[in-house]
């Protein structure tokens, strides 16, 4: 089987959205080449060898490539891709140049070439994301490994929004909490939360492909063996309530309808952690959470991306975890 490669030249902040567009329109897999990955690798353990010439990452922006079965590929999908990419500008995402390039590629190259972009990456002081096909040994005694098989659709978990949520989890987790992971994708946040001591986790995604991938990744991490993951439109199909933490790394436009659902599911003093928020949307999302009754404890930032640590206040406006800490 051969493949048609459809590549979109875009801004780094749009890589996840463009990936979703390509998958929605029939891509069997995704490859991301992002100039910002240079920063991620430089933060990783210095003992991890990176062949920069082999990676050949773009100097600026990103290239997101989708792979379509050559026999079933319909060129009519190309203007649809272009239109949806341009539409990202309406959501406050920088997508330019937005150029779409098409070429044919043989199956053997597609099946293996993407793996060269994935290497162990230290994402917090003691959490390292490791591709499942690599033999990596912890460099320090308290280093915890998150083993992922990103396939060709869900990335390595090193995007700035993911790193913001990992940092937020590190800040708020005390141990034994009940957590909901909304829009779990690869499952990276749920796995990290388990390593950090969370007790019970329910993970959801609206996409059954994402749920299947998350289940595969959870199976690679013994610490995550008891995590429940299933399809749900945000929290509509989640029975759990009175939870301690809700985490959502999703687009700002999707955070809006999640806010009242999160309020209803959280216990008093519980945390609402959100990211996927581009700079232009930060004030809007922060103010929407405040209007719903949440208190903002802290905001986090990497480049143009923001994360928010909010909580559902007790009547006396004292956060339980903060009071204990």
What does it look like?
This protein is an alpha/beta fold. It folds into 2 domains: 3-116, 2-Layer Sandwich (Alpha-Beta Plaits); 153-324, Rossmann fold. The protein has helices at residues 15-24, 37-42, 52-55, 77-87, 107-113, 160-172, 188-195, 208-219, 252-265, 279-291, 320-324; strands at 3-10, 29-34, 62-69, 99-105, 121-122, 127-131, 144-148, 178-182, 200-205, 228-231, 243-249, 266-278, 295-302, 305-311. The strands form 3 sheets. Strands 10-9-8-11-12-14-13 form a 7-stranded mixed β-sheet, with helices on both faces. It has a 4-stranded antiparallel β-sheet with strand order 2-3-1-4. A 3-stranded mixed β-sheet has the order 5-6-7, covered by helices on one side. α6 (160-172) packs parallel to α7 and α9 (252-265) packs parallel to α10. It is globular, with a radius of gyration of 19 Å. The protein starts with a strand and ends with a helix. Mean pLDDT is 85; it is low at 39-55 and 320-325.
Any idea of the CATH topology of the largest domain? Rossmann fold
User: For the record, what is the CATH homologous superfamily label of the largest domain?
Assistant: Vaccinia Virus protein VP39
Overall radius of gyration? 19 Å
Task: Look at the structure and give the mean pLDDT.
Answer: 85
The residue ranges in which pLDDT falls below 50 over 5 or more consecutive positions are 39-55, 320-325
- Give the SSE order as H and E letters: EHEHHEHEHEEEHEHEHEEHEHEEH
Largest sheet: 7 strands, mixed
* Count of domain modules: 2
Morphology: globular
Structural class based on helices, strands and sheet pairing: alpha/beta
Number of helices: 11
How many individual β-strands?
14
| Relative helix content | 25-40%
Distance between the termini: 57 Å
CATH architecture of the largest domain: 3-Layer(aba) Sandwich
Give the strand order of the largest sheet, numbering strands 1, 2, ... along the chain: 10-9-8-11-12-14-13
| CATH C-level name of the largest domain | Alpha Beta
Family: Belongs to the methyltransferase superfamily. PrmA family.
InterPro entries: Ribosomal_L11_MeTrfase_PrmA, Ribosomal_PrmA_MeTrfase, SAM-dependent_MTases_sf
GO molecular function, one term: protein methyltransferase activity
EC number: 2.1.1.-
């Amino acid at each position: 089987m051969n493949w048609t490669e459809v590549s979109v030249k875009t801004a780094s902040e749009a890589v996840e959205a463009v990936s979703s567009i390509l998958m929605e329109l029939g891509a069997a897999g995704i490859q991301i080449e992002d100039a910002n990955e240079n920063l991620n690798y430089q933060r990783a353990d210095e003992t991890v060898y990176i062949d920069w010439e082999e990676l050949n990452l773009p100097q600026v922006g990103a290239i997101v490539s989708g792979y379509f079965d050559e026999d079933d590929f319909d060129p009519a999908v190309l203007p649809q891709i272009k239109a949806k990419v341009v539409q990202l500008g309406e959501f406050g995402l920088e997508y330019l140049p937005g150029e779409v390039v098409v070429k044919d590629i043989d199956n053997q190259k597609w099946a293996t070439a993407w793996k060269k972009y994935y290497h162990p990456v230290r994402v917090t002081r003691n959490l390292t994301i490791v591709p499942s096909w690599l033999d990596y040994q912890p460099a320090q005694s308290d280093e915890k490994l998150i083993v992922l098989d990103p396939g060709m659709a869900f990335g390595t978990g090193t995007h700035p929004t993911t790193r913001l949520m990992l940092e937020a989890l590190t800040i708020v987790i005390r141990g034994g909490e009940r957590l909901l992971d909304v829009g779990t994708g690869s499952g990276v946040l749920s796995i990290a939360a388990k390593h950090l001591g969370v007790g019970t986790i329910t993970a959801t995604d609206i996409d059954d492909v994402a749920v299947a991938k998350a289940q595969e990744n959870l199976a690679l991490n013994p610490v995550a063996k008891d995590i429940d993951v299933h399809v749900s439109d945000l929290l509509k199909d989640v029975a759990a309530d009175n939870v301690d933490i809700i985490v959502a790394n999703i687009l700002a436009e999707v955070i809006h309808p999640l806010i009242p659902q999160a309020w209803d599911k959280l216990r008093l003093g519980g945390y609402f952690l959100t990211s996927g928020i581009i700079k232009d949307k930060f004030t809007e999302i922060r103010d929407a959470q405040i209007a719903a009754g949440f208190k903002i404890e802290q905001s986090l930032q990497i480049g143009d991306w923001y994360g928010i640590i909010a909580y559902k206040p007790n009547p006396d406006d004292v956060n339980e975890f903060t009071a204990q800490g």
